[in-house]
Amino acid sequence: MSGFVVACDGSSHSGEAAKLAAQLAKATDQTLTLLTVFPNAEIERMVVSGIMPEKIDEEVAAFGEEAFHAAKEAVGDTAELAEDVLLRGDPAKQILDYLEKHPGSHLVLGRRGHSLVRSLTLGSVSEKVVRHADAPVTVVTE
């Protein structure tokens, strides 16, 4: 299925990306998929803290609900929403895997704007995705 995909995490940056993705989807008469990834690092932190697996599942679901709710508020009724996709793992890798499995998709994501030093030493999800994606990617900055 082709169309627009917006990576969302509940931040203002992903809200801006959702707005643009919705406008692009409407202008091109395509659907919009909301995609969010619960990071492995957070799951690992929860496991080390002794949180039970069912509680982790609840946290993951709550994270997804919050991210999707924020994106849907940003989108409003601008575009037709195809689906909500909640994944777990390394955000950049999961986004890239999703794009590979859904050829013809166009990803829109926000850039958090970390400092230059942090971006150079750690990299960012948006930079990793842009560097490795085999699909069109639009990065929205505030």
From TrEMBL:
Domain of life of the organism encoding this protein: Bacteria
Coiled-coil stretches noted in the UniProt entry, renumbered to this chain: none
Every UspA domain range: 5-140
SUPFAM superfamilies documented for this protein: Adenine nucleotide alpha hydrolases-like
Family, as annotated: Belongs to the universal stress protein A family.
Protein name: Universal stress protein
Species: Marinobacter adhaerens
Organism lineage string: Bacteria, Pseudomonadati, Pseudomonadota, Gammaproteobacteria, Pseudomonadales
